[in-house]
Design brief:
The structure is a single chain. The protein has one domain. The strands form two sheets. It has a five-stranded antiparallel beta sheet, with no helix packed on it. Strands 4-3-2-5 form a four-stranded antiparallel beta sheet, with no helix packed on it. Helix content is 6%, strand content 35%. It is globular and about 40 Å long. The relative contact order is 0.17. It has one helix at residues 118-125; strands at residues 4-6, 20-26, 29-35, 44-45, 59-61, 77-84, 87-94, 102-106, 109-114. A hairpin with a 2-residue loop joins strand 8 (102-106) and strand 9 (109-114).
């Protein structure tokens, strides 16, 4: 099944083919970054000679409207709308280079989790008194 990704702001399609394209920025550098549309596949497509730098936090923007893709749920996560057939979901993904943590959100719940860093990401966001199986940012998922 194919995936169609859209900007949460302008609703423009950001994967015109089999690559999701975002504008990535850090300090004085801006590049177009491509990644595989299948959640959990962390293949990146970078311009020749570019490197993201392990552990660096990047800002991602829609290449159409140029609005930030930063999520409201967590400062290290970005958000896009994802369509699979007739099913609309959201995908949250880390904007920290090398951190593999992806969450597919359906009906305000985490439907799928991908990446070897996802479990530790959940654990570090879990505050005192938060029951098992919940995360603080689940409460505001739209």
């Amino acid at each position: 099944m194919s995936w169609t990704y859209r900007c949460p702001h302008c609703k423009g399609v950001v994967n015109p083919d089999e690559t999701v394209i975002v504008l990535a920025a850090r300090e004085d550098k801006q590049i177009l970054l491509g990644f595989h549309p299948k959640p959990g596949n962390y293949t990146l497509y970078l311009p020749p000679g570019e490197d993201l730098g392990e552990g660096e936090r990047w800002d991602f923007y829609c290449p159409i409207c140029r609005r930030s893709l930063a999520s409201e749920e967590h400062e290290n996560l970005c958000s896009l709308i994802i369509w699979q057939g007739d099913k609309r979901r959201r995908v949250l993904f880390s904007r920290v280079a090398g951190e593999r943590a992806t969450y597919v959100i359906e009906d305000r719940n985490v439907a799928e989790t991908y990446g070897e860093h996802a479990a530790s990401y959940e654990a570090r966001d879990k505050g005192p008194g938060v029951p098992d199986g919940t995360w603080p940012w689940h409460k505001i998922i739209k």
